[in-house]
Recover the amino acids of this structure.
């Protein structure tokens, strides 16, 4: 790919931050309050909650390879991303109007299905955006840029969580219309998200390595690329332990601890405050120690969260747990993304990203159902403990890989 001039790079960084900020308003509203909406307002059961986490991953699996195939035949990743993002955001409006047409016990299931189907265009959008931004932002600027971008959009997301939480607190917990208003508001802000996505400056080139024959070969050949294979295995183990606890956290916080919309906002804000404060630190640590060492540390912190959560149902204490976990969530978000761009060969980046997204989506479909199954056959405490143990297994793997890489570097410097 041709190297972008400095002015284009700086402009793309600027509009990308604005694009991400407006995107995160809608994403924060929907992702933070959809579980509360489904559980508390629509009276969903635990199986619906599990499907809320699992079904989107199923549709992501179905969409990823289709998106990669489609993207490989387009001249512009940017316009592919624009169209996919616009379609995905229209679902915010569908979430708002569906209760006017569907009622009773079917409504929570339909809302869950809408959120799941939304992941088809969202998968197209995410795949194309990741590939696009990898082209637009040079490797030597990524750590600094993504640290700054993540800080900014997290601040915006925090405000988009606090304000709705405070407003919802003035209504009955089972009152439907306020949630519909906020879903419509998310739709409005998504218009600005798309506008700033349009402003990105892209140099359109045809990827010479994306023929159908090469893609079919790569389906077998991905795992032959050693750095990617090690990263993928560690990611799968970590995401299994991470995502199996997602419905458990929702059930524990809302049903067992009695968290309201205001407390859900407090949990999110607490986590986001420490994310904002530590994004740049994770970037610095990764530059000093390397991505793998630093990623192992972030995963270790995340492994402590399930155990810390089940120690108490006190809502103030749970806010503190989220404050603590936000430190490591920042590292996981930044380092997994940077690591993926690092281990994916530049000429085949889109293909590798598609493969990675599909594999993680498979885990994302299985893990929540597995977590809820453990909750039913065991107990919340045991299910959370298993989640922590699986996360620790990924920590051990990443530490081993980091140590092995360090030894290889020493051997290459001091050959025998």
């Amino acid at each position: 790919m041709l190297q972008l001039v400095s002015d284009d790079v700086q402009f793309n960084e600027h509009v990308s931050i604005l694009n991400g900020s407006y995107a995160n308003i809608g994403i924060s509203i929907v992702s933070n309050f959809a579980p509360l909406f489904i559980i508390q307002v629509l009276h969903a059961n635990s199986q619906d909650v599990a499907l809320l986490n699992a079904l989107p991953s199923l549709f992501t699996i179905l969409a990823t390879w289709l998106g990669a195939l489609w993207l490989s035949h387009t001249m512009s990743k940017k316009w592919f991303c624009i169209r996919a993002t616009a379609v995905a955001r229209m679902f915010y409006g569908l979430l708002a109007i569906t209760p006017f047409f569907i009622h009773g016990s079917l409504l929570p299931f339909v809302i869950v299905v809408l959120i799941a189907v939304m992941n088809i265009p969202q998968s197209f959008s995410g795949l194309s955006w990741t590939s696009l931004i990898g082209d637009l932002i040079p490797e030597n600027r990524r750590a600094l840029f993504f640290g700054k971008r993540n800080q900014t959009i997290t601040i915006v997301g925090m405000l988009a969580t606090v304000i709705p939480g405070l407003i919802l607190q003035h209504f009955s917990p089972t009152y439907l219309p306020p949630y519909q208003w906020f879903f419509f508001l998310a739709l409005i802000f998504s218009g600005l998200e798309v506008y700033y996505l349009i402003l990105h400056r892209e140099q359109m080139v045809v990827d010479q390595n994306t023929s159908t024959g090469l893609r079919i070969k790569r389906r077998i050949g991905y795992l032959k690329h050693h750095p990617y294979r090690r990263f993928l295995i560690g990611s799968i183990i970590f995401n299994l332990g991470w995502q199996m606890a997602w419905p458990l956290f929702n059930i524990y916080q809302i049903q067992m601890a009695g968290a309201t919309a205001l407390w859900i906002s407090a949990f999110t804000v607490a986590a986001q405050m420490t994310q904002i404060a530590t994004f740049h630190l994770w970037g610095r640590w990764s530059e000093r120690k390397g991505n793998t060492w630093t990623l192992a540390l972030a995963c270790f912190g995340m492994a402590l969260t399930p155990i810390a959560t089940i120690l108490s149902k006190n809502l103030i204490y749970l806010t503190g747990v989220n404050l603590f976990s936000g430190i490591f969530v920042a590292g996981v978000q930044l380092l997994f993304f940077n690591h993926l761009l690092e281990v994916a060969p530049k000429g085949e980046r889109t293909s590798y990203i598609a493969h990675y997204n599909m594999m993680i989506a498979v885990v994302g479909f299985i893990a929540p159902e597995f977590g809820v199954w453990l909750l039913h056959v065991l107990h919340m405490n045991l299910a959370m403990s298993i989640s922590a143990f699986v996360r620790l297994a990924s920590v051990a793997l990443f530490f081993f890989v980091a140590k092995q890489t360090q030894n290889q570097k020493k051997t290459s410097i001091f050959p025998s």
